[in-house]
Predict the 3D structure of the following.
Amino acid sequence: MSTGRPLSAEYFDEWYTDMVASPVKDELVRRHLGLPAHLLSTSLLSWEAVGEVAAALRLSPGQVLADLACGRGGYGLEVAHRSGADLVGVDFSAAAVRQAQEYAVRLGRVARFRVGELTATGLADASVDAVMCIDAVQFAEPADAVYREIRRVLAPAGRVVLTCWEPVDRGDERVPDRLRSVDLRAGLTRAGFVDVTVDERPGWQAVEAALWQEAVALDPGTDPALRALQDEGVRVLEFGHRIRRVIASATAN
């Protein structure tokens, strides 16, 4: 969820680099999310949820899928593999992009990854058939710019699927500001999308809570990735009951 600061690309470069040497952190996340051993997770999407995202995107073989804030590429590569789509991943961390490229090669899959911002992807107008963004729209500044960028790069009738967290009460100042500002329905609607749906997924949230509880209880030793996971767990458990887990989908008008 990464609720803390800073948010610079340099910070995330270090964060991703630390993960390379942390098999314990990856094992813990995969176990709680029910992910196969090969899948490199960046966020908190379970194996069941990956299937839901793939279905909501409605991709056909040969179409182009953009995975924004792709991280190490695991989720985008899996969805593209299931659908037969071509994948282009975008992340503002050069370390993440490099790891995603290496991961695709290890899997024997063809994909493109590039450095870019959520609000300035560098992709051409109407150049992709679908967009997915897993647990990252809260990082966009200004908040509405990410929805406009997604609409710009999507071809007419293209699909977008977003997962994130939203506040139960937008006036609750105990929720971090950038999560308090997340309103997927409003953002997608203002950007011109139609058929907007936003659904709550309490089961996903329960899985995440169990992960955070184990992370908080462990001894990270000298493992910086494990310590970062623990620190995040401490923060999230303070306000986790004040947010709701959601998935949104929409169609470009």
User: Anything to note?
Assistant: Strands lie at 64-68, 86-91, 112-115, 128-134, 154-167, 193-200, 243-252. The first helix runs from residue 9 to 20. The mean pLDDT is 94.
